[in-house]
Amino acid sequence: MNEIQPLRQWAIGVALCLTLTHSPLGISHAYADSAPLQQALNQQVSAVEAHPLPIAEFYQLRDGQPAWQAVRAVESLVAALNSLETDGLTPEDYHADRLLDEFQRSQASSESAQAAFDIKATRSLLLALDHLERGKVNPRDVEPQWDAPRPERSYSLMRVVHAVDDYALDNAIALARPSSAAYQQLRDALKQHYQLVNLGSVPYLDARDESLRPGDEDDDVSVLRQRLALWGEADLQVADSSAYPMIGVQAASNRRTFDAPLEAAVRRFQRRHLLQEDGVVGEQTRLALNTSVASRIDQLRVNLERARWIRPMQSSEPRVWVDIAGYRMHYVRPNGQHWDARVVVGTPRRETPIIHSTISHLTINPSWTIPPTIMREDVLPQVRADIDYLARKNIQVISPMGEPLAAEEIDWQRPGGVMLRQVAGAGNPLGRVVVRFPNDDMIYLHDTPARGLFRRDQRALSSGCIRVEGVAELAQMLLQDTGSRYQMSSLLNGGSDRNVNLSQRIPIALHYLTAWPNAEGEVEFRPDIYRRDAALLAALQRSV
């Protein structure tokens, strides 16, 4: 009996220890014996139950136990928050630069101070996860026409709790980070550009009266090589003659010559920046080459934020999306096939808005009711100068009820509520096909008789709607993919203004992205045609 009694006492002690240090959820409660700390924590948590971040829920999943009372836990959190720099976020927004000092001060203070620090650290983590998943900036603050709700939290808070308990905060960050390939490619590009900051000074190309062309021999060609090497053309770097004497001699003879490899590098650079791909370094190419690394970092940060606004889609979900600044339209079909086309978008004076909608129907051989802005700014000046302009353009004058009116009887200085409608035909600006989706801006995809515009590199040329190259092919795929019995070949031979409803609506989104990966995974840098980047960058840089 005397030998068995100590064993019983040992077993009871182990059981009590396990009861105090482990919850039914498997969460280690290293501080379960600190009743004053837990009481202080529970009191402070109850005061933040209405907080928009799930702080109270976080502690409920921990059975009310603190999370950040060990230096290893705080160090893991700080490291995870600092990693957000490669997402274009600012670690200081989440107190990554102060948490360790504040932890040490709280440990030397009262249980109330320790509980307050615990909640602050939890808020830092949850705010970072919220910004990473949904964006730091509310899109409506910088895009007044934004018409989509912000995504709801989709990551598992329980998995975050387990990551905290395992000191694996990088796993918690990964739960909220967008998983799309495009987002990761933007992150990789941002990492590369942060590394470029440390390369030191690279000379800029001076302005010239004449463009640099293949075959030229000039000192500026050597600078061109250095600028291209900075932006990823590593093979163009001149060897260090002190380290490689023979290579240095060979390179020196070629560095001033605009040779074929250099021309190919210039063309690749132009393609990635939506410039005319001619291998000639003119003014626009020079300006793009001279862009600072800091400016490209800002551009990547802005577009990582935009990428966080985009609703994640299932890979099998059909969808159309228009890349406004990239002048491209993409259709992901139900079978996973991708169909891309060049587009013409709105001018800086008549911007194409950001829209989220669903494609509802097609209009075949459409007439065109001229929108009020185009009528007022473009058409009326022509009519006032020459009333025969209406007949030449096959434009009808109609009342708001659609009744025909005599053009000669209208006072074109004060036309009142008359409307203008251009009949269907070869000269109609809408071409033969319109793809329609509900929106407040009267925007749609359409055909155009001016197909030569698609050959231009810069295609911000329309009055807001989107002209699509090969839109009849797109329309046929939409009919086929939604189970329609109609064929475009027969519809195009029919009458005018025929509306064909789709039995299944296809999601469509119009997005504005000034840096985005192309089909090869290379990040393209596009001109900010609508001057939207600065406002978003300023919002990103505001502290929270």
Descriptive overview:
The protein is of the alpha+beta class and 544 residues long. It contains 20 helices and 14 strands. The protein has helices at residues 4-21, 35-46, 55-61, 71-82, 99-107, 111-134, 139-142, 157-165, 169-176, 181-196, 219-230, 245-254, 260-272, 283-289, 293-309, 372-385, 389-392, 471-481, 488-492, 533-541, and strands at residues 319-323, 328-332, 338-346, 355-364, 368-369, 395-398, 419-422, 433-436, 445-446, 460-462, 466-468, 498-511, 515-517, 523-525.
List keywords for this structure.
8-stranded mixed barrel, 20 helices, 544 residues, single chain, globular, 3-stranded antiparallel sheet, alpha+beta
What is the terminal separation in angstroms?
66 Å
- Helical content class: 40-55%
Q: How would a crystallographer describe the biggest sheet?
A: 8 strands, mixed, barrel
Helix segment tally = 20
How would the blueprint of this fold be written?
Layout: H1 4-21, H2 35-46, H3 55-61, H4 71-82, H5 99-107, H6 111-134, H7 139-142, H8 157-165, H9 169-176, H10 181-196, H11 219-230, H12 245-254, H13 260-272, H14 283-289, H15 293-309, E1 319-323, E2 328-332, E3 338-346, E4 355-364, E5 368-369, H16 372-385, H17 389-392, E6 395-398, E7 419-422, E8 433-436, E9 445-446, E10 460-462, E11 466-468, H18 471-481, H19 488-492, E12 498-511, E13 515-517, E14 523-525, H20 533-541
Parallel strand pairs: 1-12, 3-10, 9-11
Antiparallel strand pairs: 1-2, 2-3, 3-11, 4-8, 4-12, 5-7, 6-7, 8-9, 13-14
